[in-house]
Amino acid sequence: MTPSRRDVLRLAGTTATAAMAPVGIAGTVTVTAQEPVDGDLPAYSQWLPVDDGGLEFAFVDWAALDEYVQDELETANPNEAVPAAYEADPMIAPVSEGSLSTYLFVGLTLGQFRLGRLLDDEAFESTIEGLLRTTDAFVVTGRIDPAEIDAQITAAPEAEFIRQLERTDEIEGYDVYTPVSEATDAAIAVGDEALVIVTGEDPNAADDPRTRLERPIGASTGTADRMTDASEAFAWTLERAGDGDVIVGQYGDGDGVVDFAFDGLEDAESIVSSLTVEDEETSTGEFAAVIDDLDEATLEAVLGASADERSLDIEDDRVTATGMWRERN
Highest taxon of the source (predicted)? Predict the structure, then answer.
């Protein structure tokens, strides 16, 4: 069986290939010791606050992916069958699920606030560059027109499912909007370079919306601690695998944003996995994890198993992997 571009998009979210290699074929695995690598943390990491209960995130570099995958994402059906090899690959399945759920959050969840077409250049003057879904909030980064957003979210609803908001507060330069009704399950913070949205649909909805807004905003402005400052393991995995077109990560226990329930990853302290579209024929992936008592044989069997080429580096409790997926005519 040769998966189509739609198969790969549905499972990998970012791969821009027209047809991938047969899923039963994978490249040779090389296991070597890791060399020290210096690397800067990705810009989106500033929005990831300390969370003692664990942190999960999915980031989509929309500015990089728009030209490749918007048409496919608009028509992708997450319920369609996909090759089993992709579902079993920790370098593909979590990134796929994270990218598609992040994209659908805009169209479905933000639709109730008249922001469902936020990624449509013809519908909004604001330019979207990144989409970040975390345990607490959803962050949209780019060049935001606050007046345009205000006009959308405060307009009188024209349908029953539309919710009207009003400006009620301010957090560190962000105007905060909450429902006109007595509902307290949602809030949107609007700034020049970002929107921060919290809704009752988020996995960790125990705290009030303002508190959930304050955490990522505070992390981004430096008034609150970031997870990269609190955890060396998390910072290390981000430095090694946090750059790409779509990135997903988990620190501590999972909470529903990302699923890293794979053999060999049960005792992971921190995991980050990413995929990048290199061109219309090639995509690459990177993976990094810190795992107590890791099982090298198990990790060799699953990490990048669906790729044409892959490598695996292990030292002590740390593992990195790379993979490459090419178009096959």
Answer: Archaea
